[in-house]
Every structure is written in C-alpha cells, then in structure tokens.
Amino acid sequence: MREQTRHVIDQHIALDVHVGGFCPVMGQGTVDGRRLYFAAQNETWHFAVAGSPEVDPAGMTSREGGFYSEEVYEGKARSAGWMTVGEAESLIRRCAEGYAAEQGLPTTR
After folding, report:
1. CA neighbor of 25 nearest in space, from 83, 72, 70
2. Mean pLDDT along residues 69-76
C-alpha cells in the first residue's frame, strides 16, 4: 500500500512539514520559522517560503514575497501529482536546504 502522509522534521535546517496526498501531492509547514508550501501536479512541482507573516506561500508564483522554486517533474510517476511521498520529501528537503543556504543559515550536517 502506498504511504499517504508523512511528518518530516529536520532540526538541522529547522524544517517541520506534513506532506502527502495524491493529485496534487502537497506539503505545508515551516522552515526556519517561516511558512512553507509545496505542491506537485500535472507536469510541475513548486516550493515556496513566505518572506514575511503577511505572505501566504500557497499563493506565491514567483520569488516576489519570499523564496520560490518550480521545476518540471522528471520522476517515475506519470505526472507530478502521482509522485511518492518519499520523492516529495526529497524535493522539499533539497529546496529547504537551498533556502537555508540563500539565507546564510547552516546547511551542513
């Protein structure tokens, strides 16, 4: 049976996110105390971190308002919305580490 949800905590980069679902796969939580949002559907996935409490990361479509990354999905599933929770976790971790590096926060374990 396919895992439906996962709670990911990485104290090193202050990541706390719940990820799961199907079409779209979504994640919501925080990194370094800032709200984050991840969504994967159709051919793409995106990751956003709000730059301030007034910004909703779920509504971001660019780096305006915070940190933003979007890529075309190239995984094994037929579309990004069918990626596994493990794939989503890996992408979220990678983006959270990119955010931490951009902010000058420690990123090495």
Report:
1. 83
2. 90
Beta-sheet pairing, 15-20 with 66-72: unpaired
CA-derived radius of gyration, the chain? 13
State the pLDDT confidence band at 109, using cuts at 50, 70 and 90: low
Tokens describing residue 98: 């990119």
DSSP assignment of 52-77 equals: STT--GGG--SSTTEEEEEEE--SSS
For residue 80, the 8-state DSSP code is G
Q: Which residues contact 102 (CB under 8 A, 6 or more apart)?
A: 67
pTM for the predicted model, two decimal places? 0.91
